[in-house]
Amino acid sequence: MNPAETLVLIVEDEPAIAELVRFSLRDDSWTFCHASTVNEAWDIIQQQQPQLVLLDWMLRNESGLRLLTRIRAESTLHDMPVILLTGRTLDEDWSVAMEHGADDYITKPFSPRELAIRARSALRRRGETQSARPLQVGPLALDPRSCTVRVGAEAVEVRQAEYRLLKFLLCHPEEVFSRAQLLDQVWHANGTLDERTVDVHVLRLRKALRDAKSLLKTVRGFGYKLTAG
């Protein structure tokens, strides 16, 4: 991606923090726009289609999750990376953010270097999704471009957090991953969350997959894998 073509939307109602975000990403020569409310941010998204959104959860008058919900409800915005920047640090806050469709979750105060690395990573994953072919194991198929999941000819509804887990496992069929590896590779939790969080998402994913739930195997003492066998 040409840095000159990368527009980053900062949704933050604290001017000092918005400026810190710009400073953190300055070496990438990206272009920035700023919004302090959900409505202002939505107008910018509709008009300019930024390549990355850095979103404060706790805006003064509205939750940033409201904007995230609107973004994920639009089929044309499914692959727009959204990173939440927030002072909320509880495990359940992270889970709520992932279920609403956040691509990453960074707590305040944040390291400028870490923010830059994770912003570049989110953009790289977006590029991979746009060029990716459908993934399939047995009757289970996922199309990254349309964000759809099918079991045979039947479409199934999978929530955002479980969709990420499924996509990762479909990219690595027959490979066993520990809970810690999944937290790191799928949700970039960096060891900050209880590994039982993974068990919750596996349980929800199996329920969503119905007849194909047997493809998601528990490997006792190690973790989980997706297999056609």
Describe it.
With 229 residues, the protein is an alpha/beta fold. The chain has two domains: 3-130, Response regulator (Rossmann fold, 3-Layer(aba) Sandwich); 132-226, Arc Repressor Mutant, subunit A. The protein has helices at residues 15-24, 38-48, 64-73, 91-99, 112-131, 160-171, 179-187, 196-209, and strands spanning 7-11, 31-35, 52-56, 82-86, 104-107, 135-137, 140-143, 148-151, 154-156, 216-219, 223-226. The chain has a five-stranded parallel β-sheet with strand order 2-1-3-4-5, with helices on both faces. Helix 6 crosses helix 8. The longest helix is centred in the middle third of the chain and has 20 residues, at 112-131. The protein is globular, with a radius of gyration of 18 Å. The protein starts with 6 loop residues before the first strand and ends with a strand. The mean pLDDT is 89. It holds the Pfam family Response_reg. Keywords: DNA-binding, Phosphoprotein, Two-component regulatory system. Residues 132-228 bind DNA. Residues 7-123 form the Response regulatory domain. The modification 4-aspartylphosphate is found at residue 56.
